Amino acid sequence: MSIPLKVRFGLNVRAARSQRGLTQAKLAKRARVSGRYLREIEHGRANVRLPVVERIAAALWRTPGELIAPR
Fold first, then answer.
1. Cα 71 from Cα 69, distance rounded (Å)
2. Cα–Cα distance between 34 and 23 in angstroms, integer?
3. 71 pLDDT band (50/70/90 cuts)?
4. Is residue 71 a part of any domain in this protein?
5. For residue 34, which phi and psi values (nearest 5 degrees)?
6. Is 14 part of any domain?
7. CATH code of the domain covering residue 51
8. Could you report the per-residue pLDDT of 16-61, keeping only the tens digit for each?
9. pLDDT value, residue 3
10. Residue 27 sits in which domain range?
11. Structure pTM?
12. In Å, how far from its chain's centre is CA 48?
């Protein structure tokens, strides 16, 4: 059974954020989203629009594809 895309995206965001040593608050500020929304994304509960995916990816120095790809 495959992991739903929004869950996989959230796990990848959390892993990339940890690798960069960023807090949720710092990443949220860099990506111009609320801290609550970022928490929902990382827990796989948010339906994320493409512009937000792009901003999060840029804030993590990643491509959107890297954050969507299976681990």
1. 6
2. 13
3. confident
4. no
5. -75, 155
6. yes
7. 1.10.260.40
8. 999 999 999 999 999 999 999 999 999 999 999 999 999 999 999 9
9. 93
10. 5-64
11. 0.95
12. 9
Instruction: Provide Rg for the chain, Cα atoms.
Output: 11
Residue 57 to residues 1, 24, 45, 46, 63: CA-CA distances in angstroms? 26, 14, 18, 16, 5
For residues 4-17, give the mean pLDDT. 97
Cβ proximity of 27 and 17 under 8 Å: yes
11, 16, 12, 44: which is closest to 30 by C-alpha?
16
Q: Which residue has the tokens 């059974």?
A: 1
Q: What tokens appear for 41 in the block? A: 């994304």
In a domain, 10, yes or no: yes
